[in-house]
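3.2 Worked example (two chains)
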Amino acid sequence: MSRFTEAVTDGPPTGAAADRPPGWRELALPVLVLAPTLVALPFGEAAMATAVAAPVAVLIALHSLAVHRTAGPALAGALMVTVVAAGTAATLGEPPHYVAGVALLAGGGAAVAWATGRSRRRTRAYRSALVAYRAGTSAVPRFAALAERDRLAAELHDVAAHRLTGIVVSAGAALRLADRERTAEALRHAIDAGRQAVHELDRLTGLGERAAVATLADIDALAAEQGADYRRTVDAAPGSSTDAAYRVVREALTNAARYAHGAAVRVRVEGADKCGGTERPERSKRSERSDGPDRSTSGSGLTVTITDDGGTVAVSGLGTGHGLAGLRTVVDAAGGTLWSGPEGSGWTVRARLPSAASPVARRWPRWRGPTALDWALVVLAIALSLGASLLSADVPDSFRGLLPAVPTVLLSGLHAVPLGWRSRLPGRALAAVLLALVLWLACDLAGWTQPPVSDIFLVYWWVELTLAYSAGAYLPGRRSRLAPLAVASVGGLVLAGGSGITGNRAAAWAVLTGMLALPAFAVWSLGRFTARRRDRLRAADTRRRELLDRNADAAVRDQRRRIAAGLRRTAQRHARAVVAAAEAGQLESVRDEARAGLTALRELLTELRGRDSGDTPPPTVAGIAALATRYGTAVRYTGSRRPAPAVVEVAAYRTAATLMAPGVTLTVRSLDNGVELSGPAPADPGVLRRLRAMADATGGTLSTTGRGAVRVWLPEVFPSRSG
């Protein structure tokens, strides 16, 4: 058994090492290295001369801090190093330009150390999640079959049991009264309801297609069919809410027919703000219908109230024992709450259902998202171009005043900032960088900048090489082939325009372009290799997922066949017998066959719901629902559910497992670019820190609200696998 499986079996999983807060051993290296170095910095150049490795040690410490801690503390460490380095230079009496140069170089190095540490942290989380995903997905077909079993069991109870109960009640009443007109009416009802039951059972034993989503008009028809005192004051509601409302009304009316025969029944479908009064904790009245206390909800939506004024039990033993328990699952899944209990001399069922809000994509802060390394490279590029010049003993004329420094600073920024787009818009980023070089050369020829770009190009050229790699890694092959040639051509033009070139500059440009083309094509080829490797991995993941889906579909079909076989032997046979007896005018046989059908359904439902797998649910978004049943937690899904990358599936599962507790309702939202989970905030600060670390390791975020709720967002694009 894997460590992840053991964690789920013994309690809510905490995730792998990459997802949990670090222990003291993991923090020892960055703290022990970083603290003495920062203490030694103010003692001047003599002290630092005895520790040549100090800058390297600081970068290693920052990298380790970013690997083992969340983004905020790691970034604070990088800023502290920058401030201490600049403060040390100022304390030693260095001129302002020198202090600025130290700050730029320290900041550039710290930014890269922080970003690479963040990338390493996400890579560790990805690998851990991938191992857990591959180990756990063998359970996906089995749990898909169990989910289909539960769905079919719920439909059996909602549809066939409802029809057969009505037949038993009406037939029993007609037989007791021995009235010819009442008997004829009961026979007509048995024929209609029996045929509808047969039709529904045929559908369930066929291809297993799902029933259509019920509308407000369907609720109108249902209430009219049952002769209830009905009023509806809303004209529109989301499909998830109307479907759940229909099932609430149907179950409540069926229970009223069973346990409050002859009572007046009132059905109200209103807006949430129309429902007055305060629900009371319910007391036991009928064991099958008992339910938990109401949990308050906020916001507008739909309120459904069904009330009876008391009555007598029509026929004993008609209940299946799973009605309101299954109904609570339906209402919770729609994002609402359900309450049922005695009111006055009767019984009330009340459901509050939300108005739907379309999930939208969330955005992560750029400083901690998938482009963090790109923007760290921007900082490094500016630091190297400006910082090195400011540290020079012979400061260029461009930095001897604010106004002369403006062109150089602007051009350095124009040349560096496009690195921030290297993974999202590599082609445009490269074009912008090359255009900045040409503009810089033009400013040199006009005498506006010092030193000339040809003098610093070889130090600055790694920017162009980085973008040549990005073009190979992220652009289609044909579109990216011009990238290394463009880099070499513009680079040769810049070098050929320098003051050190004498003679034929065109010939010099051709020679320099050829020399620069070799490294440019080398890094571009490396990018193409990375792209092909990434495509192979994605294709392999797609094939594995398709195979998994096929296996899950096969398991679902097998489950349908087994349930269909049981229905054909029992309930379906009795439903057909009900219709035949009603057509023959044999009301007593109608009642007996309908009761036998209900008994068969109850036994089948008990058998279906009694089976459970002791295995650990698969670490997927769908597996959250299976795990929730073991913790007594309700889960509702919103948004268009679709397969997510393995790291998101596992991270969502681990997050949900950490938040689970009896009586808690979790919401899982499928967004355009990830998955969001929300629920009550844990009381234990340690659990909250663990959740924050889990979200951070996958590039996500954790936020809390004033109402004691926590929201965890997990982005679908995993940064460290982008190339």
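3.2.1 Second chain
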Amino acid sequence: MQSQDVAPRTTRASGPVVDVEQAEAALVEHYPRLVRLAYLVLPPGLGRNRRVLTAHALTQRALPRGRASASVIPAQATGRDGDPGYSFVRLQVVRTALEAGLPLKRRAWPKRAQLPSLFPQVWGLRLFPRSGGADELALDQHLSTLSGPARAAYVLRGLEKLPEDGVRKVLDAAGVADPAAAVRQAAGVPVQDALLDSPEFDPCSLQARPTDLMRRRQHTKAALAAAAAVAVCGALLALPSGGWGPDGAAAPSYAQNPAARAALDPAKVTKAAAIAWKTSARTDFSVWPARGDLPGDKALLRRALAVWARPGESVQVSATPGTPSGGPAGPPQLLYAGRVDAARVVIFYDALRIVRYAEPVSGTSGAALDFARVDAAAGAEADALVLDRADGNVRYLTAPWVTGAAERDLSKPSAGAMDLGPTGGVTAPLASPAQQTGACTSWNVLQLTDASGTRLLTDLGELAPAHLTVGRPAAPREVSGAAALRTWSPFACSLAAVRSQGVRSVNAWGYAQQTLPDDSGDAAWVCTRAETWRGGGARVLAQFHTPGVAYGAVAAKAEDVAACGAKDPHVLAGVLWKSAAGSWYLLAAGSADTRSVRATGGVEGSAQGNLLAVRTKQGAQAGLKGTLADGRAISGLR
């Protein structure tokens, strides 16, 4: 094990005060990321099973005991890094992960992080992340050669995207004696930021194997005897005033507080008034009335709430990325309870999530529980929810302000729309593109109409359909009208690339038109950007469409970049293209404010303006550089 250059500090930079509730909110929202951070910083010598359990334990112990001061750590201007609560718990995770790697001989009494975690524990199983490929294995070997502080520096730079100065400040606040040396050592490992997000380093997505079965059998009798002795001693020592009964400071595990009981009481489920949406300034799920033919079925609601709080092994549970799947914190709002096809369906809303419970009409075997994050949803994002999927079709529950619903094939802009109702807020079934297999020849979307106009939503395999828009990132428009539909048409099938990713909205921006060499007509360059409910994980595709071809081709793609978004409405991408005359060209296009484009590497060429066409050969490799009108350099999307 590498020695860790960590020393205790007694002073810290002052910062905003963080209370327990703020820190807990940040920890719950970013829990998978914080556990991944702890797992990567922990010494590989601990073994994968202990690293997994220790990473979870350290993250769960990161809450302050009271109000605390969060160190001011300059970082990228994102919602995550701008949150003092997140900065505090991240610092605690880094500090304790570094402490866990300290040799025991350094201290007369070990720190808590150096000892095996009491919780969580999984008896009889060994847990470890899914195995990655050769690149992930090589990166893990590189990280194992680093000291703890250097490993933390590498992870903070690659996973958290902190600048070098920010990394040094975090390490200094965590108690590292020489942060600059740690940063220099980390710089010796090749930068492979994308691999840090791979399943190889995800301690929340695990595989399980049994422990040593023979040894476990041999020790069973001894463990039972010891447990019986402890139980007898505990019974003898327990006194009425011992403080561990239902009235004591720590209630027994079966005790429930009033809030927990209220959350599971169907009589306390809230319901919005039928006309609340007409008088409220809000257009979100909080003003949806309860619909369906079973909103008064207390037994159904009780089952749904109980499964939500404690789903059994037979319940199929799913959650969109970044969505917590814990029980209700208080009485939720009821949006729907009724029979749909061959199931009874209940939909709740708790201001952060949509929770859908479904059970067969004939019983409760095969129940399903689905979670979707919908915080801050409003307008088009709160227009519809997936009510049921069956036989490749999907039914939607629409907002009370929706006056019309129709099915439209996004890939065929000139085709008409088929009316779907809705009746009682429930649409007729339509073919779901999220469930289609084989070659993509169509992409059915939901077209909704209300007093403000028409909008398009698409099913991407989750409870909340994604909102489709078109136009410049700073001012996207609804996909209504022939021109907007034609923009989306060649790229409809590319939506399959963002299925089941927690997508909130997808915008298509036609950022350039290019006249092709050899009199081959005009090509369109379109950038599609999928934003997620969790904020991170946005996916960007630069796509290229030539005349006479039904579908566009992906020229470049990237994840967690600002390109094509409201914060950075710029993009540059290129593609190798063969003309009808048989000649190969490197074609590139940037957004309108690109003043020059230059090809580097295997292809040399440059052009003034935002378009580039350079003759080359098949298989050529090239890089792209551009200059914006304000003088800023821009690289090709990748």
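3.3 Remarks
The chain has 13 helices and 29 strands.
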